Amino acid sequence: MELFKQSSTVSSSSGQQKGTAEGSIKWRGQTVEVKNAAIRAALKRADDLIAQIQQHLRAPSSDSKSNESTESKSVMTLYNALFSAYEEVLKNCRHLLREMASGGQSDASKDALVALQAYANYHKLRYAIERCTVQADNMRLKQQQSSQRQRGNKRKISKPEDLVAVYDKLLQHVSDLRSLDADNDDESSQQASLIASHAASARAFRCYYIAEAHRRKGQFKEAAALFDRASQLASEALQSQTIQNVSTLEQLQTLAKEAQSQRAVVQASALMDQEEKSQALNDSVARLNIDDSKEQQQAPAGSSLPLLDRLDQFDAGLASEHHSLVNFPPKLETVPCKPVLFDLAFNSLQYPDLSKRVQVPKAAPAPDAAASEPVKPAGFFGRIFGGR
Fold first, then answer.
1. What does the DSSP 8-state code read for residue 329?
2. 20 to 30 A from 184, CA-CA: which of 34, 71, 215, 324?
3. Residue 256: which of 205, 191, 322, 213 has the closest Cα?
4. What is the CATH number of domain 1-147?
5. CA separation, residue 304 to residues 290, 323, 377 (Å)
6. How many CB atoms lie within 10 A of CB 211?
7. CA–CA separation, 266 vs 288, rounded Å?
8. CA dihedral 91, 95, 100, 101 (to 10 degrees)
9. In 3D, which of 13, 56, 6 has the Cα closest to residue 198?
10. What digits encode the pLDDT tens for the residues 236-277?
């Protein structure tokens, strides 16, 4: 928050926000006249809101938690009103530029509107960065205070994911502001150094709270790597010499030390978790038994058989207890060994040829030709039908 006091000092010393009531602004070292009454009124309202915001930020923090929450909400309301004022300026500038394109007015008026549009865009993004930083500071302060309270006091605290979302938004605003700030004069270089300091500190804090989110989910390896990365980002921001504010430097130094200590804690937690999982696996394997008699002897007092093993017994039990239906995982049981080898080799067996040992029956003698001739009937009818 102290960083933005320095930012407001640079802005006020450069005179960018002076002269709005007189009908002109100073932007990029030039004086731009504001001829439109609606744009002039919106800029005047924006200047008043900026003064109120800076007054709230410079005011000493209240000891009461309810007053602190109320002040935070009022500051966020002022920021929203400020953005609405700048949005009104941009809307009127776009409307007037469309009218000039169709009416063919002078280039001087068009250049003035383009400068006003760039001025409103720049300051809207700049104060959006300030709002994200103030919001992140408040959330981190609440998180630190909640960790010092007793467990019995239930109050909604900020999650690491919420802080990561705020820092993501802040870095997006920084990227958009850098794309607008292409001038290299002295005034712009001072603002660029402040923007670079915001980005460097935001990246370090964002990485730290991503690691914190992984730690809470039990992902200790990812958390250890991210805590190490957060410490590196904080050290790089301190060595870059872009941050001149004392409060921000102290916050980054504290962040680097805290990230290193949290990395050690996470590594120890990972080892403990691995040891607990290994011990639980060993205990579950040791409890496996294929002997029912031994299992019944080792069973603790008061334990009952599952319902499938006592279908002929009635046991209502206590209402607070849940009787097990079956054993899960199922018990190991002994089964006879199946001759799998012979089952698989049955189709590939080749039996020996035993045709030589089979006794073939002898063939009967052939009958005579006379004996083989059919007998014709004799008698009267035999003579008629060819008999002798």
1. S
2. 34
3. 205
4. 1.20.58
5. 18, 8, 98
6. 26
7. 33
8. 100
9. 6
10. 888 877 777 787 888 888 999 999 999 999 999 989 988 888
- Which candidate, 9, 199, 42, places its Cα nearest to that of 120? 42
What number of CA atoms fall less than 13 Å from residue 75's CA on the CB side? 25
- What is the C-alpha to C-alpha distance for residues 245 and 4, in angstroms, rounded to an integer? 9
Q: What is the pLDDT of residues 228-241, one digit of tens each?
A: 999 999 988 888 77
What is the value of pTM for the model shown? 0.64
Two tokens, residue 271: 């080892």
How far apart CA 196 and CA 243 sit, in angstroms, is 8
Is 381:388 a contact under the CB 8 Å cutoff?
Answer: no
Contacts of 119 (CB under 8 A, 6+ apart): 16, 25, 27, 32
Alpha-carbon torsion (64, 66, 72, 77), positive or negative:
negative
How far from chain centre, in Å, is Cα 124?
A: 29
- The tens digit of pLDDT for each residue in 284-298 reads 777 766 555 555 555
CA 44 to each of CA 5, 23, 80, 159, 288: distance values in angstroms, whole numbers, following the listed order: 21, 10, 16, 38, 80
Report residue 63 as tokens: 């000891």
Amino acid at 388: R
Q: DSSP secondary structure string, 175-235?
A: HHHHHH----SHHHHHHHHHHHHHHHHHHHHHHHHHHHHHHHTT-HHHHHHHHHHHHHHHH
Mean pLDDT of the 94-114 span: 79
pLDDT at residue 340 in the model: 59
Give the C-alpha distances (Å, rounded to integers) separating 266 from 9, 182, 212, 215, 260: 42, 43, 10, 7, 10
In angstroms, the first-to-last Cα distance of the chain is 147
Judge whether 38 and 92 are in contact, CB under 8 Å: yes
